[in-house]
Amino acid sequence: MWEYSDKVREHFFNPRNSGPLEEANGIGDVGSIQCGDALRLMLKVEPETEIILDAHFQTFGCGSAIASSSALTEMVKGMTLDQALEVSNQNIADYLDGLPPEKMHCSVMGREALQAAIANYRGEEWSDDHEEGALICKCFAIDAVMIEDVVKANDLHTVEEVTFYTKAGGGCAACHEGIEEILAKVKAERAGPGEVSPPPACPATPEAPRPPSAKLTLVQKIKKIEEVLESVRPMLQRDHGDVELADVQGKKIYVHLKGACSGCMMEAATLGGIQQKMIETLGELVQVLPSSHMPVEA
Amino acid sequence: MTPIYLDNNATTRVDPAVVEAMLPFFTEHFGNASSIHAFGSEVGKALKKARSQVQALLGAEHDSEIIFTSCGTESDSTAILSALKAQPDRNTVITTNVEHPAILTLCEWLEKEGYIVHKLKVDKKGRIDMDEYKSLLNDRVAVVSAMWANNETGTIFPVVEMAELAAAKGIMFHTDAVQAVGKIPIDLKNTKIDMLSLSGHKLHAPKGIGVLYLRRGCRFRPLLRGGHQERGRRAGTENSASIVALGMACELAQQKMDVENTEVRRLRDKLEKGILSQVTHCFPTGDVTNRLPNTSNIAFEYIEGEAILLLLNKMGIAGSSGSACTSGSLEPSHVMRAMGIPYTAAHGTIRFSLSVYNTEAEIDRVIEAVPPIVAQLRKLSPYWTDKGPATNPEAAFAPTYA
User: Fold this and answer.
1) Rounded CA gap, A298 and A203, in Å?
2) What are the pLDDT digits (tens) for A90-103?
3) How many CB atoms lie within 10 A of CB A173?
4) Is A67 contained in some domain?
5) Is A264 a residue of the active site?
6) How many domains does chain A have?
7) For chain B, which ranges sit under pLDDT 70?
8) Range of A256's domain?
9) Is residue A128 part of a domain?
10) Cα of B304 to nearest chain A Cα, Å
């Protein structure tokens, strides 16, 4: 069974604002019964102020789909439409104290329903470009469609490159076979029967950071390491954790994981993600290890 | 409130008598059966007894036809890979599209390796077409692998007849019988089945022990090579405590076979009727006239299975579901899709699987608990109105995208 937070359970067992809303003037329907998830969001908007006076939902779906819908209605009540459009799927997940990676799509559906309902109120057309594939990387919640798109757009050929561009495969590494299969499939399509694949014309892609030409001094290196830790800190803090640098010994970087991060089941994945960033930033292969692995001074 | 466990096709509790039988093999009888001293020979005798207990439940002709493995999956992989390796001139596997992933995932990998896999289709009750099956039997087929009983619906395949048809063409026959062993009578010596997989934890033995039955004379290549254990057919020091436990569990299963097919069946039927008579827009899946006595799989339309399970769990009732969300995949169960169960129902399938430990009072409690749970979720569903399902559910709910 999934590890749902208490908040998810609570919203599932006691959903707020469920059922039809008679006076709704903005309705968003997303999902379908085929997918196993369908959400109708109904908003009652005050025309003068564009404030959402009431929000209701009807959902066909699993526990986290119902909890995400319930959370969404609570979150947007009292907001103006412009404020509501700022609500991201991550905000919905955070409101529920997190969702399992396989269930993040429930929060995405919530955000889409919100966009659809607001578009409906404003008389706009809303179309979605979101397509979901089978979940490949469970550490970073990256699905097959996303990996395939990035592989095609950037002409990627190795698992390392895929990890570099999408993070997929940067944690426990169990999905590398799955990533290799996607690479093989794209490669086969590129070759195509009797077709020559065009040379990759100046790709409109983020440029891969080049390894710094000169070797870094230790001080420069530690500065860069601190920058990387600084950049991941907000993500960890959102999960009630934190990280700090303990020591640097050659190619080994020791860090303290603190708060909710220490002893967390995702510790290996977190360190893997940080390590990937370190390698990108420093331009050299380094290992990021928990401070508990530091050699004891003689 | 004591919890009610109706998920015995997933795993079972280890019978207290089984625990008692196995415990000494962690402590005083810890020896290695291969050793010459007394510590080892005690264990050797116990393994021999366990082997004959398994032999008796399966109706195998010889006790040497029983090979202990680590689980049902290992037995399945060993059987199919052995058949291919031992007959290099044959490159085809016939199976069905409702098998357990232990078979299907292996077959997908075999296809990538260049082998040919034919998956038999099933009809809306989960039955295969014997004419299609017959038409596929030829001298390129290395092995047929068909489950004895389906884990989701309990539907029983005619494996005895299928094995005879295969044997007539000189083709090996394997059956994944992890759900059938201990629930319905099996008498292998009077069949043409060459290989059979079973798993201890499905019949009140612990997890981590399985068996591959291998008919004497069936050509074989081991999966694990090393020591001489299991006559060199499965190397690795014997898991003696679990083997003893499985032996005991098989003996108990044989004693309780009648109860399983009378009392357990009666309770299952009562549960199913009790739910179907109170809840509209739901139906049992699979072949209800030919299935395991302990399994009932009911599809509830317009609601989703995981949500049902969470609410059942809150009432202390454990079941399982074929919905996509329960497994984290994007599609509902392959078994439900193979039977052509509409999406409006496939996401809402719930499997109740009983054991001899369930009581009448428990079943009464479940019959009482289910209808309000279904009503509660339907009230939340955009496909449902006060009066029943939206007249045209697909039109009533018109998403901007699908």
Assistant:
1) 53
2) 899 999 999 987 78
3) 16
4) yes
5) no
6) 3
7) 325-330, 391-402
8) 218-293
9) no
10) 5
